[in-house]
Design goal:
This protein is an alpha+beta fold. The chain has 11 helices and 4 strands; from the N terminus they run αααααββααααββαα. 55% of the residues lie in helices and 9% in strands. The longest helix is centred in the middle third of the chain and has 67 residues.
Length: 523
């Protein structure tokens, strides 16, 4: 039985009178016209909410520094003058895991924005298809008739024509989310620099307090030895000896406590940096130097806390509360979240209207592969628009719109809360600047008086005018005052760091031409 092989060619042809060279371009022109017609938007006009704070800082904040570089414009390299602390911060910016997460979150948000933005444009792809088929001729005498069709073209697949701005609104929301993530990364860097500076100050303070405790312990142990010698010679009572033992044990307890606090400070600094801080960058504990006792001195002179600053930072002006709206990254991030929520309302409103989508292709078709690029093929195109109109969805679209509106109100409240929190943080830091210096001056005066009081008590005791209890009270009071003096110096420096942070400083990079001031070590 003979089998016959035939080829059938079926293809859409251009309309009569239309040149073949333009037949495949008409759908593309139609697509362009439809795209130009799109662009209606239902996104509400965005208006920044009024700042729910006063126009000036409260009177309790005291006088602020004026002039100079604003905190948000002052790079941290110029704010931090301590060379060791600057090196620690540089290590943290590279190794801190929280900052790494923030950076990768930016990349994630940027990619998500590009995905959403791509939905505004048609997805164009090339395709090469071939079909060979034969009808069922079971029971017939002749063999099956085989038909072949090959197509080569460029097509658009399910492109949503954004007549009512739904896709554009989603793109705007994704952009705002990306910008909010970028500001969140800046906030994370500000917090990291502030946390490291505060931990560094605590480490310096606890190092000074440990040195003070060790010097105090050494003098009290020396005092205890002299008291025992006087007791053995009948020059002092057993009560005096026991009180001297108690005072030495108290200093030993303070020494152990400061060792623990210093070790915990180092552990915290290692965690913030993301690696072990090199030993050369850790403030060392000064060696204990106590003068040996002499025959004319019953009690050695107690140690004196150092009067130098624990660390040096540049002073920054406070500016006005309105500056926070533009300079603090966390407030700007909250506003971007509000803008995103506002854009989502437009997308939810657009769901009430029809969606237009388009699938189209243009190319050539032939019964042979060679004919696709030669004269054996013909132009072929297809255009398949579609419209989807919501009729009944059981209130789903309305519920989505209500969710979007409620989300915007939540974002407004969060934005206003961010402003109020920032206002309170700056006001607290300014109040600290106005009062900590007065407190430090008062403590320095008190420390001077306590040192003189101890000297007089020691002199009175050696001359038999005062009791040993008076001398012990003078020792305790002086030690407590020296501790408070060290702590208040640390608090004053920490307050400068806090003010720099809450004013939005710590995320700008220094200009290449600018150079930080000459570094100087603390202590």
């Amino acid at each position: 039985m003979n089998k016959h092989h035939t080829q059938n060619f079926v293809v859409q042809r251009p309309a009569p009178g239309v040149p073949r060279t333009w037949g495949g371009l008409r759908p593309l022109a139609a697509i362009a016209v439809i795209g130009l017609l799109a662009g209606c938007s239902f996104v509400p006009t965005y208006e920044r909410p009024a700042a729910p704070v006063a126009a000036q800082w409260p009177d309790s904040a005291g006088a602020q520094a004026t002039g100079g570089t604003a905190a948000a414009d002052l790079p941290w390299q110029q704010f931090v003058h301590d060379v060791r602390l600057r090196e620690v911060i540089e290590l943290a910016l590279v190794n801190n895991r929280d900052l790494r997460v923030a950076v990768q979150s930016i990349e994630q948000a940027r990619a998500q924005y590009r995905i959403t933005r791509a939905d505004q444009f048609p997805t164009v792809g090339a395709s090469l298809n071939g079909t060979r088929s034969a009808p069922n001729t079971a029971g017939g005498d002749d063999g099956p008739s085989v038909s072949s069709v090959y197509t080569l073209g460029v097509g658009v697949t399910s492109w949503e024509i954004d007549f009512f701005g739904r896709v554009a609104a989603l793109k705007d929301a994704a952009l705002a989310q990306y910008l909010a993530t970028e500001d969140a990364r800046k906030t994370a860097q500000i917090s990291l620099i502030s946390s490291i500076s505060s931990a560094w100050l605590s480490l310096q303070a606890d190092t000074e307090l440990l040195a003070l405790a060790e010097r105090t312990l050494a003098t009290r142990q020396q005092s205890l030895q002299l008291t025992k010698l006087r007791f053995e010679n009948g020059a002092s009572s057993a009560l005096d000896m026991r009180q001297a033992e108690s005072l030495a044990a108290s200093a030993q307890s303070a020494q152990a406590q400061q060792r623990r606090l210093r070790a915990q400070d180092i552990n915290l600094l290692n965690l913030l940096v993301g690696q072990e801080v090199p030993e050369r960058l850790i403030p060392p504990v000064p060696p204990v130097t106590v003068a040996p006792p002499t025959n004319d001195s019953t009690q050695p002179t107690p140690p004196v806390a150092p009067t130098g600053q624990l660390s040096t930072f540049a002073e920054v002006p406070a500016g006005l509360p309105s500056d926070l709206l533009l300079r603090r990254p966390d407030i700007r991030a909250a506003e971007q979240q509000l803008i995103a929520a506002n854009a989502n309302i437009g997308a939810a409103r657009a769901n009430f209207f029809p969606r237009f989508s388009l699938t189209a292709s243009a190319g050539r078709a032939s019964t042979t592969l060679d004919g696709l690029v030669g004269s054996g093929g013909v132009a072929a195109w297809s255009l398949a628009p579609s419209i989807t109109l919501p009729i009944f969805d059981m209130g789903r679209n309305q519920a989505n719109l209500d969710v979007a509106k409620a989300s915007r109100e939540i974002a407004v409240a969060q934005y206003e809360k961010a402003i109020q929190s920032a206002f309170r943080e700056v006001a607290d830091a300014l109040a600290g600047r106005a009062t900590l210096s007065d407190q430090l001056a008062a403590l320095e005066t008190q420390a001077t008086a306590e040192r003189d009081s101890f000297r007089l008590a020691d002199l009175r005791y050696r001359n038999g005018v005062a009791s040993y209890l008076d001398l012990l009270d003078a020792q305790r009071s002086l030690f407590a005052t020296e501790q408070a003096l060290t702590q208040i110096r640390m608090a004053q420096r920490a307050n400068e760091v806090q003010l720099y942070k809450v004013l939005g400083g710590g995320w700008t990079e220094p200009p290449e031409a600018a150079s930080p001031p000459a570094p100087q070590s603390a202590g």
